[in-house]
Amino acid sequence: MAFPPQFLEELRSRLALSEVVSKRLRLIRAGREYKAPCPFHNEKSPSFYVNDQKGFFHCFGCGAHGDVIGFVMRHDNLGFPEAVEHLAGEAGLPVPRPTEEDRQRYERRKTLHDLVEQAARWFEQQLHTSAGRAGLDYFMRRGLDGDTIARFRLGYAPGDSNALRTYLGKQGFSDEDMVNAGLLKRPDDGRSPYSFFRNRVMFPVTDRRGQVVAFGGRILEGDGPKYVNTADTPLFHKGTLLYGLSRARQAAADGKPVIVAEGYMDVIALVRAGFEGAVAPLGTALTETQVQELWKLIPAAEKVPFLCFDGDNAGRRAAWRAVERILPHLAPGQSARVAFLPEGEDPDSLIRAQGPKAMGAVLEAAIPLSDALWRMESEGRPTDTPEAKAAVKAALEARVATIADRDVQGFYRTEMRRRVDEAFAPARPAYNRGPWVPGQGLGQGRGRFGEPPRRHVPGVPGRLTSKPAGEGRGRASRLASMRERILLATIINHPELFGELAEPLGLLPFGDPELEKLRWAVIECLSDDRNHDSTLDAAALCRHLSSAGHETMVGALLGESTYVHAGFARPDASTEDARKGWWPAWRHLHQERVLDDLREAKAALTRDNSEANFARVVALQQEVIKSGLGMTDDGDFDDV
Known about the structure:
By secondary structure, the chain is an alpha+beta fold.
Protein backbone atom coordinates (compact mmCIF):
# COMPACT_ATOMS: atom_id res chain seq x y z
CA MET A 1 0.00 0.00 0.00
CA ALA A 2 1.33 3.43 -0.92
CA PHE A 3 0.76 6.12 1.69
CA PRO A 4 0.80 9.82 0.79
CA PRO A 5 4.20 11.37 1.63
CA GLN A 6 2.49 14.19 3.55
CA PHE A 7 0.78 11.65 5.81
CA LEU A 8 4.04 9.82 6.56
CA GLU A 9 5.77 13.13 7.30
CA GLU A 10 2.99 14.10 9.71
CA LEU A 11 3.18 10.69 11.38
CA ARG A 12 6.92 11.00 11.97
CA SER A 13 6.60 14.54 13.32
CA ARG A 14 3.80 13.66 15.76
CA LEU A 15 5.58 10.78 17.45
CA ALA A 16 8.76 11.27 19.42
CA LEU A 17 10.99 8.31 18.60
CA SER A 18 12.10 7.99 22.23
CA GLU A 19 8.47 7.62 23.37
CA VAL A 20 7.83 4.81 20.91
CA VAL A 21 11.09 3.03 21.75
CA SER A 22 10.67 3.46 25.52
CA LYS A 23 7.48 1.38 25.36
CA ARG A 24 9.64 -1.52 24.23
CA LEU A 25 13.05 -0.81 25.82
CA ARG A 26 14.34 0.82 28.98
CA LEU A 27 16.08 3.98 27.76
CA ILE A 28 18.75 5.90 29.66
CA ARG A 29 19.27 9.63 29.09
CA ALA A 30 22.67 10.40 27.51
CA GLY A 31 22.91 14.16 26.90
CA ARG A 32 20.65 15.05 23.98
CA GLU A 33 20.12 11.36 23.21
CA TYR A 34 18.96 8.13 24.84
CA LYS A 35 20.76 4.81 24.95
CA ALA A 36 19.95 1.17 25.69
CA PRO A 37 21.28 -2.32 24.98
CA CYS A 38 20.51 -3.04 21.36
CA PRO A 39 17.37 -5.19 20.90
CA PHE A 40 18.68 -6.51 17.60
CA HIS A 41 21.83 -8.25 18.83
CA ASN A 42 23.11 -9.56 22.15
CA GLU A 43 25.25 -7.10 24.10
CA LYS A 44 25.93 -6.18 27.71
CA SER A 45 26.87 -2.49 27.39
CA PRO A 46 24.47 -0.14 25.58
CA SER A 47 25.46 0.80 22.05
CA PHE A 48 21.92 1.51 20.78
CA TYR A 49 21.21 5.26 20.61
CA VAL A 50 17.97 7.18 19.99
CA ASN A 51 17.99 10.83 18.87
CA ASP A 52 14.63 12.64 18.78
CA GLN A 53 15.97 15.75 17.03
CA LYS A 54 17.45 13.73 14.19
CA GLY A 55 14.52 11.34 14.22
CA PHE A 56 16.50 8.11 13.97
CA PHE A 57 18.02 5.27 15.99
CA HIS A 58 21.47 3.79 15.45
CA CYS A 59 23.36 0.88 16.94
CA PHE A 60 27.14 1.23 16.91
CA GLY A 61 27.45 -2.49 17.49
CA CYS A 62 25.43 -4.10 14.70
CA GLY A 63 24.77 -1.04 12.52
CA ALA A 64 20.97 -1.12 12.80
CA HIS A 65 19.61 2.26 11.73
CA GLY A 66 16.27 3.81 10.85
CA ASP A 67 13.35 6.05 11.78
CA VAL A 68 10.31 5.37 13.95
CA ILE A 69 8.58 3.31 11.28
CA GLY A 70 11.71 1.25 10.63
CA PHE A 71 12.12 0.58 14.37
CA VAL A 72 8.58 -0.73 14.79
CA MET A 73 8.88 -2.86 11.65
CA ARG A 74 12.10 -4.44 12.90
CA HIS A 75 11.26 -4.75 16.60
CA ASP A 76 7.63 -5.89 16.24
CA ASN A 77 8.28 -7.92 13.10
CA LEU A 78 5.69 -6.01 11.07
CA GLY A 79 5.47 -5.09 7.43
CA PHE A 80 5.54 -1.45 6.37
CA PRO A 81 1.73 -1.01 6.05
CA GLU A 82 1.11 -2.74 9.40
CA ALA A 83 3.77 -0.64 11.17
CA VAL A 84 2.31 2.57 9.72
CA GLU A 85 -1.22 1.65 10.80
CA HIS A 86 -0.01 0.73 14.30
CA LEU A 87 1.82 4.04 14.72
CA ALA A 88 -1.08 6.01 13.26
CA GLY A 89 -3.23 4.58 16.02
CA GLU A 90 -0.72 5.77 18.64
CA ALA A 91 -0.62 9.22 17.06
CA GLY A 92 -4.39 9.51 16.66
CA LEU A 93 -4.09 9.95 12.90
CA PRO A 94 -6.65 8.38 10.56
CA VAL A 95 -4.93 6.21 7.96
CA PRO A 96 -5.76 7.47 4.47
CA ARG A 97 -7.17 4.82 2.18
CA PRO A 98 -5.78 5.54 -1.26
CA THR A 99 -8.20 5.84 -4.11
CA GLU A 100 -7.32 5.23 -7.72
CA GLU A 101 -6.78 8.98 -8.04
CA ASP A 102 -4.41 8.90 -5.07
CA ARG A 103 -2.40 6.08 -6.61
CA GLN A 104 -2.13 7.97 -9.88
CA ARG A 105 -1.06 11.12 -8.04
CA TYR A 106 1.60 9.16 -6.16
CA GLU A 107 2.94 7.66 -9.36
CA ARG A 108 2.93 11.11 -10.98
CA ARG A 109 4.96 12.59 -8.09
CA LYS A 110 7.38 9.68 -8.27
CA THR A 111 7.83 10.34 -11.99
CA LEU A 112 8.39 14.04 -11.41
CA HIS A 113 10.95 13.30 -8.66
CA ASP A 114 12.87 11.10 -11.08
CA LEU A 115 12.60 13.77 -13.78
CA VAL A 116 13.91 16.61 -11.58
CA GLU A 117 16.77 14.43 -10.30
CA GLN A 118 17.80 13.66 -13.89
CA ALA A 119 17.70 17.39 -14.69
CA ALA A 120 19.92 18.15 -11.68
CA ARG A 121 22.50 15.62 -12.86
CA TRP A 122 22.43 17.06 -16.36
CA PHE A 123 22.96 20.61 -15.09
CA GLU A 124 25.93 19.36 -13.04
CA GLN A 125 27.46 17.74 -16.11
CA GLN A 126 26.94 20.86 -18.25
CA LEU A 127 28.97 22.97 -15.81
CA HIS A 128 32.08 20.97 -16.70
CA THR A 129 31.65 21.15 -20.47
CA SER A 130 32.99 23.80 -22.80
CA ALA A 131 29.48 25.32 -22.95
CA GLY A 132 29.46 25.68 -19.17
CA ARG A 133 32.88 27.28 -18.88
CA ALA A 134 31.38 30.69 -18.14
CA GLY A 135 29.37 29.20 -15.27
CA LEU A 136 32.39 27.43 -13.79
CA ASP A 137 34.45 30.63 -14.05
CA TYR A 138 31.69 32.50 -12.20
CA PHE A 139 31.77 30.06 -9.27
CA MET A 140 35.55 30.16 -9.16
CA ARG A 141 35.51 33.96 -9.05
CA ARG A 142 33.15 33.70 -6.09
CA GLY A 143 35.75 31.64 -4.26
CA LEU A 144 34.18 28.18 -4.62
CA ASP A 145 36.38 25.12 -5.10
CA GLY A 146 35.54 21.84 -6.76
CA ASP A 147 34.52 20.12 -3.53
CA THR A 148 32.03 22.88 -2.71
CA ILE A 149 30.58 22.82 -6.22
CA ALA A 150 30.08 19.08 -5.94
CA ARG A 151 28.75 19.25 -2.38
CA PHE A 152 26.00 21.70 -3.35
CA ARG A 153 25.44 20.05 -6.74
CA LEU A 154 25.85 23.34 -8.57
CA GLY A 155 25.33 23.30 -12.33
CA TYR A 156 24.80 25.24 -15.51
CA ALA A 157 21.85 25.64 -17.89
CA PRO A 158 23.15 26.37 -21.42
CA GLY A 159 21.66 29.03 -23.64
CA ASP A 160 20.25 26.39 -26.04
CA SER A 161 16.52 26.47 -25.25
CA ASN A 162 16.00 22.92 -26.52
CA ALA A 163 19.02 21.06 -25.08
CA LEU A 164 17.44 19.95 -21.79
CA ARG A 165 14.20 18.98 -23.50
CA THR A 166 16.07 16.79 -25.95
CA TYR A 167 18.09 15.08 -23.23
CA LEU A 168 15.12 14.35 -20.95
CA GLY A 169 13.01 13.23 -23.89
CA LYS A 170 15.60 10.55 -24.61
CA GLN A 171 15.24 9.39 -20.98
CA GLY A 172 11.55 8.73 -21.60
CA PHE A 173 10.03 11.87 -20.04
CA SER A 174 7.26 13.73 -21.82
CA ASP A 175 6.97 17.44 -22.52
CA GLU A 176 3.95 17.52 -20.21
CA ASP A 177 6.02 16.15 -17.32
CA MET A 178 8.77 18.70 -17.96
CA VAL A 179 6.24 21.54 -17.97
CA ASN A 180 4.65 20.25 -14.75
CA ALA A 181 8.07 20.09 -13.10
CA GLY A 182 8.79 23.71 -14.04
CA LEU A 183 11.67 22.83 -16.39
CA LEU A 184 9.93 23.81 -19.63
CA LYS A 185 7.71 26.77 -20.37
CA ARG A 186 4.91 26.53 -22.93
CA PRO A 187 4.42 29.68 -25.06
CA ASP A 188 0.95 31.17 -25.28
CA ASP A 189 1.02 31.06 -29.08
CA GLY A 190 1.08 27.26 -29.21
CA ARG A 191 4.72 26.82 -30.20
CA SER A 192 6.83 24.01 -28.75
CA PRO A 193 7.86 24.41 -25.09
CA TYR A 194 11.35 25.70 -24.35
CA SER A 195 13.73 25.57 -21.38
CA PHE A 196 12.75 27.83 -18.52
CA PHE A 197 16.39 28.11 -17.36
CA ARG A 198 18.86 29.34 -19.97
CA ASN A 199 22.41 30.67 -19.67
CA ARG A 200 22.27 30.51 -15.88
CA VAL A 201 24.27 28.90 -13.11
CA MET A 202 21.99 26.50 -11.28
CA PHE A 203 21.29 25.89 -7.59
CA PRO A 204 19.27 22.72 -6.87
CA VAL A 205 16.63 23.10 -4.15
CA THR A 206 15.86 20.05 -2.00
CA ASP A 207 12.90 19.19 0.21
CA ARG A 208 13.08 18.22 3.88
CA ARG A 209 14.43 14.78 3.01
CA GLY A 210 17.12 16.05 0.66
CA GLN A 211 15.37 15.21 -2.62
CA VAL A 212 15.77 17.74 -5.43
CA VAL A 213 12.38 19.34 -6.15
CA ALA A 214 13.21 22.70 -7.79
CA PHE A 215 15.96 25.03 -8.98
CA GLY A 216 17.16 28.58 -8.70
CA GLY A 217 19.13 30.08 -11.57
CA ARG A 218 21.37 33.16 -11.76
CA ILE A 219 21.81 34.82 -15.12
CA LEU A 220 25.38 35.30 -16.35
CA GLU A 221 24.78 37.83 -19.14
CA GLY A 222 22.05 39.27 -21.29
CA ASP A 223 18.56 40.50 -20.41
CA GLY A 224 16.32 39.08 -17.75
CA PRO A 225 16.00 39.03 -13.99
CA LYS A 226 19.16 38.31 -12.02
CA TYR A 227 17.61 35.25 -10.33
CA VAL A 228 14.66 33.09 -11.32
CA ASN A 229 13.19 30.18 -9.40
CA THR A 230 11.02 27.23 -10.31
CA ALA A 231 7.35 28.15 -10.17
CA ASP A 232 5.06 26.19 -7.85
CA THR A 233 4.70 22.59 -8.96
CA PRO A 234 3.20 19.37 -7.52
CA LEU A 235 6.61 18.86 -5.84
CA PHE A 236 7.41 22.37 -4.75
CA HIS A 237 5.81 25.44 -3.18
CA LYS A 238 8.30 28.28 -2.82
CA GLY A 239 6.54 29.78 0.20
CA THR A 240 6.93 26.62 2.28
CA LEU A 241 10.48 25.44 1.59
CA LEU A 242 13.84 27.05 2.35
CA TYR A 243 17.11 26.63 0.50
CA GLY A 244 19.36 24.38 2.60
CA LEU A 245 16.49 23.05 4.74
CA SER A 246 17.52 19.40 4.83
CA ARG A 247 21.10 20.25 5.88
CA ALA A 248 19.84 22.73 8.48
CA ARG A 249 17.67 20.04 10.08
CA GLN A 250 20.76 18.02 10.85
CA ALA A 251 22.70 21.08 12.05
CA ALA A 252 19.90 22.18 14.38
CA ALA A 253 19.70 18.67 15.83
CA ASP A 254 23.43 18.96 16.58
CA GLY A 255 22.84 22.21 18.47
CA LYS A 256 24.13 24.59 15.80
CA PRO A 257 22.39 27.94 15.20
CA VAL A 258 19.78 28.26 12.48
CA ILE A 259 20.50 31.35 10.35
CA VAL A 260 18.21 32.79 7.70
CA ALA A 261 20.22 34.57 4.99
CA GLU A 262 18.97 36.26 1.82
CA GLY A 263 20.48 34.26 -1.04
CA TYR A 264 21.96 31.02 -2.33
CA MET A 265 25.59 32.18 -2.23
CA ASP A 266 25.11 33.47 1.31
CA VAL A 267 23.97 30.03 2.45
CA ILE A 268 26.90 28.35 0.73
CA ALA A 269 29.38 30.79 2.28
CA LEU A 270 27.88 30.29 5.74
CA VAL A 271 27.94 26.50 5.50
CA ARG A 272 31.56 26.53 4.31
CA ALA A 273 32.43 28.74 7.30
CA GLY A 274 30.93 26.24 9.73
CA PHE A 275 27.42 27.71 10.06
CA GLU A 276 25.67 24.64 8.69
CA GLY A 277 22.24 25.72 9.91
CA ALA A 278 22.03 28.40 7.20
CA VAL A 279 18.91 28.62 5.01
CA ALA A 280 17.37 31.19 2.65
CA PRO A 281 13.91 31.93 1.22
CA LEU A 282 13.36 31.14 -2.42
CA GLY A 283 12.82 34.40 -4.23
CA THR A 284 10.23 35.69 -1.77
CA ALA A 285 10.22 37.45 1.57
CA LEU A 286 10.17 35.11 4.56
CA THR A 287 6.66 33.63 4.86
CA GLU A 288 4.67 32.56 7.92
CA THR A 289 4.94 28.93 6.83
CA GLN A 290 8.70 29.18 6.50
CA VAL A 291 8.91 30.68 9.99
CA GLN A 292 6.96 27.74 11.39
CA GLU A 293 9.32 25.45 9.52
CA LEU A 294 12.28 27.15 11.18
CA TRP A 295 10.82 26.60 14.65
CA LYS A 296 10.26 22.93 13.86
CA LEU A 297 13.96 22.57 13.14
CA ILE A 298 15.17 23.79 16.52
CA PRO A 299 14.96 21.88 19.83
CA ALA A 300 12.09 23.03 22.04
CA ALA A 301 14.14 25.08 24.51
CA GLU A 302 16.08 26.96 21.82
CA LYS A 303 13.51 28.10 19.24
CA VAL A 304 15.25 31.35 18.36
CA PRO A 305 16.62 31.38 14.79
CA PHE A 306 18.78 34.26 13.59
CA LEU A 307 17.35 36.40 10.80
CA CYS A 308 20.39 37.83 9.04
CA PHE A 309 20.01 40.77 6.68
CA ASP A 310 22.30 42.94 4.59
CA GLY A 311 23.34 46.18 6.23
CA ASP A 312 21.65 48.49 3.73
CA ASN A 313 18.20 50.00 3.32
CA ALA A 314 16.95 47.02 1.35
CA GLY A 315 18.20 44.68 4.07
CA ARG A 316 16.42 46.69 6.75
CA ARG A 317 13.20 46.65 4.75
CA ALA A 318 13.49 42.87 4.42
CA ALA A 319 14.07 42.61 8.17
CA TRP A 320 10.97 44.64 8.99
CA ARG A 321 8.88 42.50 6.62
CA ALA A 322 10.14 39.40 8.42
CA VAL A 323 9.31 40.89 11.82
CA GLU A 324 5.83 41.74 10.58
CA ARG A 325 5.25 38.13 9.50
CA ILE A 326 6.67 36.57 12.65
CA LEU A 327 4.81 38.64 15.25
CA PRO A 328 1.39 36.91 14.95
CA HIS A 329 3.00 33.51 15.53
CA LEU A 330 5.12 34.23 18.59
CA ALA A 331 4.64 31.86 21.49
CA PRO A 332 6.37 31.27 24.83
CA GLY A 333 9.99 30.37 24.06
CA GLN A 334 9.38 30.74 20.31
CA SER A 335 10.92 33.90 18.87
CA ALA A 336 13.79 35.11 16.68
CA ARG A 337 16.78 37.44 16.75
CA VAL A 338 17.62 39.94 14.02
CA ALA A 339 21.23 40.41 12.89
CA PHE A 340 22.42 43.20 10.59
CA LEU A 341 25.66 43.00 8.66
CA PRO A 342 27.98 45.99 8.21
CA GLU A 343 26.96 48.45 5.51
CA GLY A 344 27.68 47.10 2.04
CA GLU A 345 28.34 43.55 3.22
CA ASP A 346 26.46 40.27 2.91
CA PRO A 347 27.47 36.98 4.58
CA ASP A 348 29.38 35.86 1.49
CA SER A 349 31.45 39.05 1.16
CA LEU A 350 31.98 39.42 4.92
CA ILE A 351 33.25 35.87 5.37
CA ARG A 352 35.52 36.07 2.33
CA ALA A 353 37.00 39.38 3.51
CA GLN A 354 37.20 38.86 7.28
CA GLY A 355 36.57 35.17 7.98
CA PRO A 356 34.07 33.24 10.13
CA LYS A 357 34.87 35.22 13.30
CA ALA A 358 33.41 38.36 11.76
CA MET A 359 30.20 36.49 11.04
CA GLY A 360 30.17 35.15 14.58
CA ALA A 361 30.42 38.72 15.87
CA VAL A 362 27.40 39.69 13.77
CA LEU A 363 25.37 36.90 15.36
CA GLU A 364 26.53 37.86 18.85
CA ALA A 365 25.28 41.41 18.21
CA ALA A 366 21.86 40.22 17.01
CA ILE A 367 18.96 42.05 18.65
CA PRO A 368 15.82 40.48 20.16
CA LEU A 369 12.59 40.72 18.23
CA SER A 370 11.27 43.31 20.69
CA ASP A 371 14.21 45.61 19.88
CA ALA A 372 13.62 45.07 16.17
CA LEU A 373 9.95 46.00 16.55
CA TRP A 374 10.85 49.21 18.35
CA ARG A 375 13.38 50.20 15.68
CA MET A 376 10.96 49.25 12.93
CA GLU A 377 8.31 51.71 14.12
CA SER A 378 10.46 54.46 15.64
CA GLU A 379 13.56 54.91 13.47
CA GLY A 380 13.32 57.58 10.82
CA ARG A 381 9.90 58.79 11.96
CA PRO A 382 9.32 62.36 13.16
CA THR A 383 8.77 62.63 16.90
CA ASP A 384 8.91 66.39 17.33
CA THR A 385 5.20 66.88 17.98
CA PRO A 386 2.69 65.23 20.30
CA GLU A 387 0.81 63.95 17.26
CA ALA A 388 3.94 62.31 15.84
CA LYS A 389 4.75 60.65 19.16
CA ALA A 390 1.19 59.39 19.39
CA ALA A 391 1.53 57.96 15.88
CA VAL A 392 4.57 55.91 16.93
CA LYS A 393 2.72 54.66 19.99
CA ALA A 394 -0.34 53.73 17.91
CA ALA A 395 1.80 51.89 15.34
CA LEU A 396 3.48 49.85 18.08
CA GLU A 397 0.17 48.98 19.69
CA ALA A 398 -1.24 47.88 16.35
CA ARG A 399 1.74 45.59 15.77
CA VAL A 400 1.54 44.11 19.26
CA ALA A 401 -2.17 43.45 18.81
CA THR A 402 -1.36 41.01 15.99
CA ILE A 403 0.37 38.60 18.41
CA ALA A 404 -2.04 35.71 18.91
CA ASP A 405 -0.63 34.33 22.15
CA ARG A 406 -2.17 36.41 24.94
CA ASP A 407 0.73 36.03 27.38
CA VAL A 408 3.35 37.03 24.84
CA GLN A 409 1.15 39.89 23.66
CA GLY A 410 0.81 41.15 27.22
CA PHE A 411 4.54 41.19 27.81
CA TYR A 412 5.15 42.91 24.48
CA ARG A 413 2.55 45.55 25.30
CA THR A 414 4.23 46.27 28.63
CA GLU A 415 7.66 46.43 27.00
CA MET A 416 6.57 48.79 24.20
CA ARG A 417 4.76 51.12 26.61
CA ARG A 418 7.89 51.30 28.75
CA ARG A 419 9.96 52.24 25.72
CA VAL A 420 7.46 54.89 24.65
CA ASP A 421 7.45 56.38 28.13
CA GLU A 422 11.24 56.47 28.25
CA ALA A 423 11.70 57.87 24.75
CA PHE A 424 9.03 60.55 24.90
CA ALA A 425 9.16 61.63 28.54
CA PRO A 426 10.00 65.33 28.90
CA ALA A 427 13.76 65.90 28.77
CA ARG A 428 15.25 66.78 32.12
CA PRO A 429 18.65 68.01 33.24
CA ALA A 430 21.64 65.72 32.97
CA TYR A 431 24.12 64.88 35.69
CA ASN A 432 26.96 64.27 33.28
CA ARG A 433 27.81 67.87 32.37
CA GLY A 434 31.24 67.91 33.97
CA PRO A 435 32.54 68.46 37.50
CA TRP A 436 30.21 70.42 39.73
CA VAL A 437 31.52 73.75 41.00
CA PRO A 438 29.63 75.15 43.99
CA GLY A 439 27.76 78.29 43.09
CA GLN A 440 27.80 77.55 39.33
CA GLY A 441 24.73 76.14 37.60
CA LEU A 442 24.79 73.55 34.83
CA GLY A 443 22.80 75.77 32.49
CA GLN A 444 19.88 73.34 32.55
CA GLY A 445 17.49 74.79 35.14
CA ARG A 446 16.09 72.74 37.94
CA GLY A 447 13.49 70.97 35.80
CA ARG A 448 10.38 69.30 37.18
CA PHE A 449 10.78 67.29 40.35
CA GLY A 450 8.79 64.27 41.40
CA GLU A 451 10.22 61.62 39.10
CA PRO A 452 13.72 60.47 38.03
CA PRO A 453 15.39 62.62 35.37
CA ARG A 454 16.32 61.47 31.91
CA ARG A 455 19.94 62.05 31.06
CA HIS A 456 20.96 64.07 28.02
CA VAL A 457 24.12 62.97 26.25
CA PRO A 458 26.35 66.01 25.67
CA GLY A 459 27.07 66.84 22.07
CA VAL A 460 24.26 64.66 20.67
CA PRO A 461 21.05 66.72 20.46
CA GLY A 462 17.96 64.75 21.27
CA ARG A 463 19.80 61.54 22.27
CA LEU A 464 18.65 60.43 25.69
CA THR A 465 19.92 57.47 27.63
CA SER A 466 17.04 55.40 28.87
CA LYS A 467 18.66 52.93 31.23
CA PRO A 468 17.77 53.34 34.90
CA ALA A 469 20.64 54.30 37.09
CA GLY A 470 20.51 50.97 38.84
CA GLU A 471 21.51 49.12 35.69
CA GLY A 472 25.03 48.80 34.40
CA ARG A 473 28.40 47.82 35.68
CA GLY A 474 29.19 48.89 39.23
CA ARG A 475 26.00 50.82 39.89
CA ALA A 476 24.66 48.43 42.48
CA SER A 477 28.00 48.10 44.25
CA ARG A 478 28.18 48.47 47.99
CA LEU A 479 30.45 51.49 47.70
CA ALA A 480 28.04 53.30 45.37
CA SER A 481 25.11 52.45 47.61
CA MET A 482 26.95 53.78 50.67
CA ARG A 483 27.73 57.04 48.86
CA GLU A 484 24.05 57.38 47.98
CA ARG A 485 23.12 56.85 51.65
CA ILE A 486 25.67 59.46 52.74
CA LEU A 487 24.38 62.06 50.27
CA LEU A 488 20.77 61.61 51.40
CA ALA A 489 21.58 61.47 55.12
CA THR A 490 23.51 64.72 54.84
CA ILE A 491 20.63 66.53 53.12
CA ILE A 492 18.00 65.16 55.54
CA ASN A 493 20.03 66.18 58.58
CA HIS A 494 20.97 69.55 57.03
CA PRO A 495 18.01 70.68 54.89
CA GLU A 496 19.40 74.22 54.96
CA LEU A 497 21.90 73.02 52.30
CA PHE A 498 19.15 72.05 49.86
CA GLY A 499 19.04 75.44 48.15
CA GLU A 500 22.59 75.06 46.83
CA LEU A 501 22.64 71.24 46.52
CA ALA A 502 19.20 70.70 44.97
CA GLU A 503 20.39 70.73 41.37
CA PRO A 504 23.29 68.27 41.70
CA LEU A 505 21.12 66.00 43.87
CA GLY A 506 18.40 66.08 41.22
CA LEU A 507 20.85 65.34 38.40
CA LEU A 508 22.32 62.15 39.83
CA PRO A 509 19.97 59.11 39.79
CA PHE A 510 20.59 56.46 42.45
CA GLY A 511 21.17 52.80 41.73
CA ASP A 512 19.37 51.50 44.85
CA PRO A 513 15.61 51.52 44.01
CA GLU A 514 14.52 52.27 47.58
CA LEU A 515 17.05 55.07 47.98
CA GLU A 516 15.95 56.44 44.60
CA LYS A 517 12.36 56.69 45.86
CA LEU A 518 13.52 58.42 49.01
CA ARG A 519 15.72 60.82 47.02
CA TRP A 520 12.70 62.04 45.06
CA ALA A 521 10.57 62.25 48.16
CA VAL A 522 13.21 64.53 49.72
CA ILE A 523 13.46 66.66 46.58
CA GLU A 524 9.68 66.92 46.25
CA CYS A 525 9.23 67.94 49.88
CA LEU A 526 12.04 70.49 50.02
CA SER A 527 11.16 72.03 46.63
CA ASP A 528 7.45 72.38 47.48
CA ASP A 529 6.51 76.08 47.30
CA ARG A 530 4.40 75.68 50.42
CA ASN A 531 7.56 75.01 52.43
CA HIS A 532 9.50 78.02 51.19
CA ASP A 533 7.95 80.58 53.52
CA SER A 534 9.43 78.94 56.57
CA THR A 535 12.55 76.87 57.07
CA LEU A 536 11.80 73.15 57.13
CA ASP A 537 14.13 71.70 59.73
CA ALA A 538 15.44 68.12 59.92
CA ALA A 539 12.81 66.96 62.41
CA ALA A 540 9.94 68.31 60.29
CA LEU A 541 11.42 66.77 57.15
CA CYS A 542 11.72 63.36 58.85
CA ARG A 543 8.08 63.57 59.98
CA HIS A 544 6.98 64.42 56.46
CA LEU A 545 8.98 61.53 54.95
CA SER A 546 7.64 59.08 57.55
CA SER A 547 4.04 60.10 56.85
CA ALA A 548 4.75 59.52 53.14
CA GLY A 549 5.65 55.89 53.82
CA HIS A 550 9.42 56.16 54.13
CA GLU A 551 9.71 55.72 57.89
CA THR A 552 11.61 52.41 57.75
CA MET A 553 14.08 53.62 55.14
CA VAL A 554 14.70 56.91 56.96
CA GLY A 555 15.28 55.05 60.22
CA ALA A 556 17.79 52.73 58.58
CA LEU A 557 19.51 55.60 56.81
CA LEU A 558 20.00 57.91 59.80
CA GLY A 559 22.04 55.53 61.90
CA GLU A 560 25.56 54.64 62.94
CA SER A 561 26.00 52.32 59.91
CA THR A 562 25.96 55.49 57.77
CA TYR A 563 27.68 57.93 60.16
CA VAL A 564 30.66 55.64 60.78
CA HIS A 565 31.67 56.27 57.14
CA ALA A 566 30.82 59.99 57.08
CA GLY A 567 30.85 61.96 60.31
CA PHE A 568 29.93 65.09 58.39
CA ALA A 569 26.48 63.59 57.73
CA ARG A 570 25.61 63.50 61.45
CA PRO A 571 22.90 65.89 62.62
CA ASP A 572 25.32 67.53 65.09
CA ALA A 573 27.94 68.29 62.38
CA SER A 574 28.29 71.89 61.32
CA THR A 575 26.69 73.10 58.12
CA GLU A 576 30.10 73.90 56.67
CA ASP A 577 31.48 70.42 57.47
CA ALA A 578 28.39 68.85 55.93
CA ARG A 579 28.85 70.91 52.78
CA LYS A 580 32.57 70.10 52.48
CA GLY A 581 31.98 66.36 52.99
CA TRP A 582 29.00 66.15 50.64
CA TRP A 583 30.76 67.31 47.47
CA PRO A 584 33.53 64.64 47.25
CA ALA A 585 30.93 61.88 47.71
CA TRP A 586 28.79 63.40 44.96
CA ARG A 587 31.74 63.73 42.56
CA HIS A 588 32.81 60.11 43.03
CA LEU A 589 29.30 58.88 42.31
CA HIS A 590 28.96 61.25 39.36
CA GLN A 591 32.23 59.98 37.86
CA GLU A 592 31.11 56.39 38.23
CA ARG A 593 27.89 57.17 36.34
CA VAL A 594 29.79 58.83 33.50
CA LEU A 595 32.08 55.81 33.11
CA ASP A 596 29.07 53.49 33.11
CA ASP A 597 27.45 55.56 30.39
CA LEU A 598 30.63 55.33 28.34
CA ARG A 599 30.72 51.55 28.67
CA GLU A 600 27.08 51.32 27.58
CA ALA A 601 27.75 53.66 24.66
CA LYS A 602 30.69 51.53 23.49
CA ALA A 603 28.56 48.39 23.71
CA ALA A 604 25.82 50.08 21.68
CA LEU A 605 28.38 51.16 19.07
CA THR A 606 29.61 47.56 18.81
CA ARG A 607 26.04 46.38 18.18
CA ASP A 608 25.13 49.18 15.78
CA ASN A 609 27.93 51.17 14.14
CA SER A 610 25.73 54.21 13.51
CA GLU A 611 26.75 57.85 13.43
CA ALA A 612 24.58 58.60 16.45
CA ASN A 613 26.19 55.87 18.53
CA PHE A 614 29.66 57.00 17.47
CA ALA A 615 28.86 60.61 18.37
CA ARG A 616 27.63 59.48 21.75
CA VAL A 617 30.89 57.64 22.49
CA VAL A 618 32.98 60.64 21.44
CA ALA A 619 30.90 63.01 23.55
CA LEU A 620 31.16 60.81 26.63
CA GLN A 621 34.91 60.35 26.16
CA GLN A 622 35.25 64.11 26.14
CA GLU A 623 33.09 64.27 29.24
CA VAL A 624 35.33 61.76 31.01
CA ILE A 625 38.39 63.83 30.14
CA LYS A 626 36.70 67.00 31.41
CA SER A 627 35.74 65.16 34.59
CA GLY A 628 39.41 64.50 35.27
CA LEU A 629 39.27 60.70 34.90
CA GLY A 630 42.34 58.80 33.72
CA MET A 631 42.66 57.08 30.35
CA THR A 632 44.60 53.82 30.04
CA ASP A 633 47.17 53.02 27.35
CA ASP A 634 44.63 51.00 25.34
CA GLY A 635 42.30 53.97 24.99
CA ASP A 636 39.86 52.85 27.66
CA PHE A 637 39.30 54.53 31.00
CA ASP A 638 40.30 53.43 34.46
CA ASP A 639 37.52 52.51 36.85
CA VAL A 640 36.84 54.83 39.73
